[in-house]
């Protein structure tokens, strides 16, 4: 018979120590899990979701810019949670980080521990994952999701009973479209077998080792909303999906329509803002500007007649009159001079000033 775990006392580890290199330059000053997403730090969505599943105590495994996490979330009481922080002096990788953070857990050796990657937006049922783990007495139960193009990820085949049979690296010819969704339930005593004080990857070392040793590693397959916000395009998509209500989050700062305007922002009545965009605190969108599917961070300015599509404009940055951005990241305090066009993955580093273009078209006023 299925045993029912006391989810109310479930403890969690949140992995937030990565450098977020794919999201540079945004992550040069702010770790990825703290980037504003639909108006609040990304992690606020994960914390609120974990709490909605009855998690009460969460250990943050920090490394890169560790002190910023405590500054943002403190002891967690404002969120109705108890938060602890365990910092690695040098990054220990995903497995090493779990082992290090586990020192702050207070649960027993057979209890389940939830481990979450700090850059995943997921609508899956954490209770169902924990129930499966407990009822089958697994060593680890991984949330697996299905993606259209698994060649961008390592893939995770299972047998007919849900047992994971291998952990395969990225390949152009994946054997399944099921991938590791970055949310695990570990039996506490299994964490204690991860080597201490050295770099360990759960994906490359711990999970393949457990499978090799004949331990029960289970796949919990659920294809609810899922997104890894590791790249600028995915980060923008996550924020947009939250604003447009494609994923519900208890952490949303308020009701949104086509876009979310945070307090002290100014959007000209003659500007068009849409597609789940966010206009940050103190940000300004001037007359004739078009902003769609984008994140405008605090204090930035989009000048008259400028166009910003599917892009991030960093804090304090300026996009001057008539400039066009599509699929671009503009770093903190950078300036895109008037009438420049930046497209397809361009990234402007913090403080860079792109002078205005002297070219004028007959249609320009
Ligand atoms: P990229 O550099 O862009 O690949 O991003 P990342 O550094 O976040 O790496 P990745 O997306 O593979 O990491 C998955 C999760 O594990 C993220 O939530 C990271 O914050 C976290 N993580 C990765 N490496 C470490 C580490 O060495 N220590 C800790 N504490 N967390 C880590």
Automatic annotation (TrEMBL):
Gene Ontology MF terms: transferase activity
Domain Nucleotidyl transferase: 12-241
Top-level taxon of origin: Bacteria
SUPFAM superfamilies named among the record's database cross-references: Nucleotide-diphospho-sugar transferases (SSF53448)
Keyword Metal-binding: no
Residue span, Mannose-1-phosphate guanyltransferase C-terminal domain: 258-337
Keywords: Transferase
Gene3D superfamilies: Hexapeptide repeat proteins, Spore Coat Polysaccharide Biosynthesis Protein SpsA, Chain A
InterPro entries registered for this protein in UniProt: GMPPB_C, Mannose-1P_guanyltransferase, NTP_transferase_dom, Nucleotide-diphossugar_trans
Entry similarity comment: Belongs to the transferase hexapeptide repeat family.
Protein name per the record: Nucleotidyltransferase
């Amino acid at each position: 018979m299925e045993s029912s775990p006391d989810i109310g006392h479930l403890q969690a580890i949140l992995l937030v120590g990565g450098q977020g290199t794919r999201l540079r330059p945004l992550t040069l000053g702010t770790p990825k899990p703290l980037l504003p997403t639909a108006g609040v730090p990304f992690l606020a969505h994960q914390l609120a979701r974990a709490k909605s599943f009855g998690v009460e105590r969460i250990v943050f495994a920090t490394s890169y810019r560790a002190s910023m996490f405590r500054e943002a979330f403190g002891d967690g009481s404002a969120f109705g949670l108890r938060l602890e922080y365990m910092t690695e002096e040098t990054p220990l990788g995903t497995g090493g980080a779990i082992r290090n953070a586990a020192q702050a857990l207070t649960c027993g050796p057979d209890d389940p521990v939830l481990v979450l990657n700090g850059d995943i937006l997921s609508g899956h049922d954490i209770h169902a994952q924990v129930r499966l783990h407990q009822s089958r007495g697994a060593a680890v139960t991984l949330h697996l999701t299905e993606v259209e193009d698994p060649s961008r990820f390592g893939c995770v085949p299972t047998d007919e009973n849900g047992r994971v049979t291998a952990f395969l690296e990225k390949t152009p010819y994946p054997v399944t479209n099921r991938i590791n969704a970055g949310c695990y339930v570990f039996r506490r005593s299994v964490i204690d077998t991860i080597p201490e004080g050295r770099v360990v990857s759960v994906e490359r070392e711990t999970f393949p080792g457990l499978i090799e040793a004949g331990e029960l590693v289970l796949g919990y397959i659920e294809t609810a909303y899922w997104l890894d916000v590791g790249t600028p395009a995915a980060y923008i998509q996550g924020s947009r999906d939250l604003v447009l209500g494609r994923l519900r989050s208890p952490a949303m700062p308020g009701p949104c329509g086509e876009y979310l305007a945070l307090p002290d922002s100014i959007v000209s009545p003659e500007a068009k803002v849409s597609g789940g965009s966010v206009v940050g605190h103190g940000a300004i969108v001037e007359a004739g500007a078009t902003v769609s599917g984008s994140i405008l961070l605090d204090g930035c300015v989009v000048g008259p007649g400028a166009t910003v599509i599917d892009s991030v404009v960093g804090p304090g940055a300026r996009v001057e009159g008539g400039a066009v951005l599509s699929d671009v990241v503009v770093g903190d305090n950078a300036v895109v001079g008037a009438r420049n066009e930046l497209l397809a993955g361009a990234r402007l580093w913090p403080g860079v000033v792109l002078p205005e273009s002297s070219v004028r078209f007959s249609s320009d006023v």
